[in-house]
Design goal:
By secondary structure, the chain is mainly alpha-helical. The chain folds into two domains: 67 residues, no CATH class; 79 residues, no CATH class. Helix 1 packs parallel to helix 3, helix 4 crosses helix 5 and helix 4 crosses helix 7. The radius of gyration is 28 Å and the shape is flat.
């Protein structure tokens, strides 16, 4: 049984086309490199297939040979660090801890950090040296902006409406109690459902 599965929508020069193992290998041989996205898609196809076709095995064999001879080079995956995430989280945690220590409010650090990060520029680095540079730059040039955005995020979080405060979880009850709760809900949300006969 052949498991030819053209699945990858490949974007190149704003053209979309379906890619299979054979097409990916052909592209890698033509370009001279195998990108992490191409490698991941070949892996995904192989993982999801119950059986590969002979053509797919032959294409993979060609790719392996080309990788071994250096005709095709596998592009290494780069690890990217967004230093801004670290700086915003540090600021958000400190501010939230202050608020929670002096009030009854409970805040979600993740929501606050996401709001602020969406309004701040990213500061990516690929090495620890680059990350240190970005940290120093951000502390010198952006610390006030970071504090301002975290403050705005906290204000928005505290001012958000409390949706459905009357909502309660259905607890372990007898069948009659559950039936009563469901009946009450139906009466509240569909009062005119039953028609008079």
């Amino acid at each position: 049984m052949s498991c030819y599965r053209p699945t990858l929508l490949w974007v190149a020069d704003n053209k979309m086309s379906v890619m299979s193992i054979e097409k990916i290998v052909e592209q890698a041989l033509q370009d001279g490199y195998l990108t992490p996205a191409m490698e991941a898609e070949v892996g995904r196809i192989c993982d999801n297939a119950s059986e590969l076709s002979i053509e797919e095995y032959m294409a993979l064999d060609r790719l392996m040979g080309a990788l071994l001879t250096g005709e095709v080079v596998a592009v290494p995956r780069k690890q990217f660090i967004n230093v801004m995430e670290e700086l915003v989280l540090t600021e958000a945690i400190a501010r939230v801890a202050e608020i929670e220590a002096t009030s009854e409010s409970s805040l979600d650090v993740g929501d606050i950090a996401a709001y602020a990060l969406n309004r701040l520029p990213p500061l990516y680095a690929t090495t620890e040296e680059g990350a240190n540079y970005q940290r120093q730059r951000a502390k010198a040039e952006l610390q006030e902006f970071i504090s301002q955005q975290v403050g705005e995020a906290i204000s928005r979080y505290l001012d958000r409406p409390n949706f459905f405060p009357e909502r309660q979880a259905i607890s372990k009850n007898t069948g009659n109690e559950v039936l009563h709760q469901v009946s009450t809900l139906l009466q509240a949300y569909a009062p005119n459902f039953e028609q008079k006969s």
